[in-house]
Amino acid sequence: MPEEYLKQTSALGNLGRPQVAILDFGSQYSHLIARRVRDIFLNNGIFPLFFETCSPQVAILDFGSQYSHLIARRVRELHVYCELYSCQVEATELAKHEITAIILSGGPSSVYDKDAPHVSQATWDLIKERKVPVLGICYGMQEMAHVFGGTVEPGTKHEYGKAMVHRTEGCDSVLFQGMPQEFQMWMSHGDKVKKMPDGFKFVAATENAEFVAIENSETKMWGLQFHPEVTHSPLGKNVLENFCINIAGAKPDWVMTDYANEFIEQVREKVGPTGHVIGAVSGGVDSTVAAVLMTRAIGDRFHAVLVDNGCLRKDEAKNVLKRMREDCGVNLRCVDAADKFMSLLKGVTDPEKKRKIIGGHFIEVFQEEAKKIEEESGACDYLLQGTLYPDVIESISYKGPSATIKTHHNVGGLPATMKLKLIEPLRELFKDEVRELGMALGIDEASVWRHPFPGPGLAIRILGEVTPDRVKILQEADAIVIEELFKSGHYRAIGQAFVVLLPVKSVGVMGDGRTYENVAAVRCVETTDYMTADFYHLPYEVMGTMSSRVINEVRGINRLCYDISSKPPATIEWE
Fold it and tell me: Please, which residues bridge with residue 561 across strands?
């Protein structure tokens, strides 16, 4: 067997424990051999250690670009599995995986700066040894030029926005296969390649930059000055598809049914036949999908806990109990802690204090319930958590997490004294993939397509002090708005919709009397990633129906406004 083949594919001995090694010669049944062998282990009381997704992957090295997560999303949309790493990831970490291709992201630095980030020599050696195709985007292309003998300099003109890219005469680059001679792409750069790296040729240009796309087909390296991952590059997905599938040979086999089956097997192996898992649920799509997955894996040995903090939507606790217990078969209990939360929030108006109070007491309530479950079941060693891939990206991206704008709604740590081992079934998925997984699991459409709801609940949609009376007013108004969105057919087209109760009163007239009541605002946004969002253009007649119903049916509101700000500069939530 050729030595090169062993270098590229063998991972024997990496797990550090005895194993049955299955050598795959491309059979469609190879994965079934692995599953049957694991079944034999399980049936004989042998439970291997938990393992993570071992699918072949496209590795995206992040240089701090605001668009890095979009590269990952676009690759996943091709049904190709990918993961995002810091550009300074160790080569030994990459070597643990079957890397089909590497994409170098953009970034805010200049490659010639003293402290500019660079790919390590060990990683370049790994790329050469395994003959991994590489695509450099913006800074990533300049990094390739810098490393392989080219020159990068500040451009005389910065190029931001839409630009027409022209392929060179006779260009037959596989990267642009099936694309026209001229196409629109999105530019965002100040530097540009002045001298091409050794062995490369340029295959596309713009009016402002000669070397907009370069390639070295012998070493399997391509560079792009533009950003194919953004929606402003209409044919960008074609470029990424050509690279990932046609050039790198990545298989478009990343599907949610396989992901679910793999996770269920992993959990059964990790938890064993008697282990128990606890997890908090909110009724949102993330916690619902995670809870259903866990229930499919270990049944009633998964204990779900819903904490009613008094700031949920109208009838939310009752509806979640019915939906998750009866429809999804989840072993769920509800803790009514509304009175305690309300007493702690009394007199508090600062939004960050509200979040910390609710988050802190939630942990206390959850910890108390976990103790009860442990006493009933004997032991509970694992905690289910609904971390999504954007949270993972934020923690590993170059330059580290962004400055805190506000405490994240759904991410928080439990005390170390609980000593629970984490199980995070959604940590490799984006929100749209979680929905796709929910549909694959047979969860009802209404649950899968529910809009996100913040952990602190209505407390951060009530500007000012949170009181039981103000919660009730907001619950009623919010229920009417959501009902009208469903009736008018706009709910699914909206990424998130809710009502905000303002700390403002206005004069009104109802019947023959003067009123002086609260002002509320409706917020509807369209978004795919929740990192950017635009206000939803709701028809006036729908707004009119909402306004009429809220003002007439909800005592305490006499004026309804519509929020037309986008993110950025505004955030989606008001607090």
Answer: 521
Q: Could you give phi then psi for residue 563, rounded to 5 degrees?
A: -80, 120
Catalytic pick among 189, 227, 276, 303: 227
Residues 329-384 have pLDDT tens digits of 999 999 999 999 999 999 999 999 999 999 999 989 998 998 899 898 888 889 99
CA-based max dimension of the chain: 93
Q: Which residues pair with 161 in a beta bridge?
A: 187
Model confidence pLDDT, tens digit, residues 515-556: 899 999 999 999 876 777 899 999 999 999 999 999 999 999
- The reply to whether 227 belongs to the active site is yes
Instruction: Give the H/E segment covering residue 206.
Output: none
Residue 436 corresponds to which amino acid? E
Classify 490 in phi/psi space as left (phi over 0), alpha (psi -120 to 50) or beta: alpha
| Host H or E run for residue 277 | strand 277-280
Per-residue three-class SS string for 411-475: CCCCCHHHCCEEECCCCCCCHHHHHHHHHHCCCCHHHHCCCCCCCCHHHHCECCCCCHHHHHHHH
Separation of alpha carbons 196 and 53, rounded Å: 38
Number of other CB atoms surrounding residue 116 within 10 Å: 16
Per-residue confidence (pLDDT) for residue 526, from 0 to 100: 93
Q: Report the C-alpha gap between 413 and 407 in whole angstroms.
A: 12
Residue 409 is a catalytic residue = no
Question: Active-site residue 424, yes or no?
Answer: no
* DSSP-assigned letters across all residues of 1-36: --HHHHHHH--TTTTSS-------SS-TTHHHHHHH
Confidence class of residue 399 from pLDDT cuts 50, 70 and 90? low
**Burial of residue 147, with CB atoms counted within 10 A of its CB: 0-12 exposed, 13-18 middle, 19 or more buried:** middle
> Rounded CA gap, 384 and 435, in Å?
18
Phi/psi of residue 252, nearest 5 degrees: -80, 65
Name the DSSP class of 314: T
Write the CB contacts of 318 (distance below 8 Å, at least 6 apart in sequence). none
**Strand pairing report for 496-510 and 421-423:** unpaired
Check: CB of residue 251 under 8 Å from CB of residue 413. Answer: no
| Amino acid present at 260 | A
* Catalytic residue of the set 83, 143, 229, 428: 229
85 within 8 A of 94, measured Cβ to Cβ: yes
* Active-site position among 69, 82, 87, 138: 138
Which of 54-58, 106-110, 248-252, 540-544 comes out lowest in average pLDDT? 54-58
